Amino acid sequence: MQSRFLYLTHTKQLFRNFKMAAFGTVFMPKMALSTFENGQWTDAATVSSDSIQLHPGAHVLHYSSTCFEGLKAFKHQDGSVHVFRMDQNVKRFAQSSNLLHLPQIDQRQVSDMILDIVAQFKDEIPEPPGSMYIRPTHFGTEAAVGKAAAPSASSMLYVLISPVGDYFAGGARPLRILLDETGMRCAPHMGMIKSGGNYASALGPILEAKEQVQADQILFCPNGDVQETGAANFILIDGNEVITKALSSEFLHGVTRDSVLEIAADLGMTVSERDLTVTELLERAAKPNVEAALSGTAAVLTSVGTLIHDGIEYKVGSGEHGPTTQKLRQALNQVQWGQTEDTHNWLTEVK
Ligand SMILES: *Cc1c(COP(=O)(O)O)cnc(C)c1O
Question: How many angstroms is it from 245 CA to the middle of ligand 1?
Answer without folding.
Answer: 14
